[in-house]
Amino acid sequence: MNSSKSPVLDGLGNTTCSAHNKISVFFSIIFMTVGILSNSLAIAILMKAYQRFRQKSKASFLLFASGLVVTDLFGHLINGTIAVFVYASDKDWIRFNQSNILCSVFGICMVFFGLCPLFLGSVMAVERCIGVTKPIFHSTKMTSKHVKMILTTVCLFAVFIALLPILSFRAYQIQASRTWCFYKTEHIEDWEDRFYLLLFSCLGLLALAVSFLCNAVTGITLLRVKFKSQQRQGRSHHFEMIIQLLAIMCVSCICWSPFLVTMANIGINADRSMETCETILVVLRMATWNQILDPWVYILLRKAVLKTLYKIARRCCGMHIMNLHMWELSSIKNSLKVAAISESPVSSKQINQQPLSSTGQ
To answer: Distance between the two ends of the chain, CA-based, in angstroms?
Structure first.
């Protein structure tokens, strides 16, 4: 480093952490390849399922899930390619980033592909909550056109957040490890540097909180309907989707919470923060695992796989847990029937008074 370096590269000479380039390039390529293959497989599975359920209540959920997996796929392609290029170039930002264009693109992609999956996960949780608690409204209002509009709005909002520093003439900064670009996390000067970090963290944590709340309401509603109506029809696809949503929420919380909390801590405490370069690099790598694990939720937690796991568990436990009729797929007609039962106390009383022979049929 010498005095002729660009202002945007200021501070790189004080790098406090680094990784072996050959090992980092190798693992970056492996992670990118695994992520691309996993997301491609998940997209194929979701598209096949969407063709089967195009006219049913599950179609909107599958569209949102497809949007999430496609976002993860492009995140691997773009961010992974830039990361491999940086490692392959020996992290010599002075040579290939004199105008700070690459760092700006990298920073924008990091923010967009970080927030967009979190937003989509929360939107999916809200959609499923409405589908379970208000199925009539969901079936009449949540059309594929509306789903595509919501997807577009979410993506545009994430793009707007990612472009905010550029629009306010604040450049993205090369981080201390010299392997990625993000908001300014060192030598924070004013409230605007803090604002971007806190905005990113608060939006991410809010998305996780919304997912948790909606999934809790959905799960409680399904259990309440089950015990109230004592009918098995019309809920198998709801249970399948809520299991997938819970898995996505757990993966997102585990992968993203450390990074979001770390960025919030830096935004609040600024230079008084005790976060080290090594800590930031570890939580960043945890966050990148989210895009690898997300597609496996749809690959592994499908109805066919869940039925197989259930049979294995039932065989190992040697006890009757639930009837396999619960896994039978149902149409929107059966979903509306369950909703009518749950919302009508008169209907539920009549069902509870039916002879045992009729309920067992």
So the answer is: 79
Which pLDDT does position 22 carry in this prediction?
A: 60
Could you give the C-alpha distances from 188 to 12, 193, 281, in angstroms and in order? 15, 6, 18
Q: Which CATH superfamily is domain 21-316 in?
A: Rhodopsin 7-helix transmembrane proteins (1.20.1070.10)
Phi-psi map region of 90: left, alpha, beta (phi>0 left; psi -120 to 50 alpha): left
Q: Are 225 and 177 a contacting pair, CB within 8 Å?
A: no
Give the dihedral of Cα atoms 228, 229, 232, 237; nearest 10 deg: -70
Helical (H) or strand (E) element with 186 = none
Smallest Cα–Cα separation from 146: which of 168, 166, 131, 162? 131
Tokens of 159: 């793009």
Distance CA 248, CA 234 (A): 23
Q: What is the pLDDT of residues 338-349, one digit of tens each?
A: 444 444 444 444
